[in-house]
Amino acid sequence: MPTPCLWFETEAAEEAAKFYVSLFPNSRIVSTSPGPGGSVQTVQFELEGRPFMGLNGGPYATFNDAVSFSVDCEDQAEVDRYWAALTEGGKEVQCGWLKDRYGVSWQIVPKALPRLLSDPDQQKAQRVVAAMMKMVKLDVAALEAAAAG
Questions:
Q1: Is residue 84 packed enough to be buried (19+ CB in 10 Å), middle (13-18) or exposed (0-12)?
Q2: Which segments in the chain show pLDDT lower than 70?
Q3: Is residue 104 within 8 Å of 90, Cβ to Cβ?
Q4: How many folded domains does the chain comprise?
Q5: Containing structural domain, residue 16
Q6: In whole angstroms, what is the distance from residue 31 CA to residue 54 CA?
Q7: Does residue 50 share a domain with residue 96?
């Protein structure tokens, strides 16, 4: 199974893994491997059972928007919870995107959005897209209102 490896410029891999594990149910730190001077070089962890690796690799590579992690949220309360946690020390972007305090990009997406965007009535779907483009954090009620016209 492919495992995403998150390359951290500083010694933040273990800290980030602990943070992510605290946010997502069914998540855990699997193992760490030692680095120079007793620091942690790599951390293996699971988010919702999916494997990840964090690497303290130094300043040779940085995160960018070419890769992001999408979180499917049941409702507005879940959107709000993940948004608040992941933007703390990070940065809000647009259309449900954010960068967390480590520079990792996330998409916080209510499950209602794909349903509204795939409506056979293309005018409804276009209204939803237009509403979404004006948002930073996605608002389920406003998306539903846009669909209703």
A1: exposed
A2: none
A3: no
A4: 2
A5: 1-62
A6: 11
A7: no
Give the CA angle between residues 79, 105, 141 to the nearest 5°: 25
pLDDT at residue 10, as a whole number: 86
Instruction: State whether 74 and 24 are in the same domain.
Output: no
> Structure tokens of 90?
């990070």
pLDDT of 101: 97
- Choose among 18, 14, 8: nearest CA to 85: 18
Task: List strands edge to edge, sheet with 50-56.
Answer: 5-8, 50-56, 40-47, 28-34
Structural domain ending residue among the three candidates 11, 40, 62: 62
Cβ-contact 117, 131 below 8 angstroms:
no
**Contact criterion met (CB below 8 Å) for 138 and 95:** yes
Instruction: Give the pairing type, strands 40-47 and 50-56.
Output: antiparallel
Give the pLDDT of residue 120.
97
Do 97 and 68 form a contact (C-beta atoms < 8 A)? yes
Distance CA 130, CA 133 (A): 5
Quote the pLDDT of residue 137.
Answer: 98
Q: For residue range 89-129, list pLDDT tens digits in order.
A: 999 999 999 999 999 999 999 999 999 999 999 999 999 99
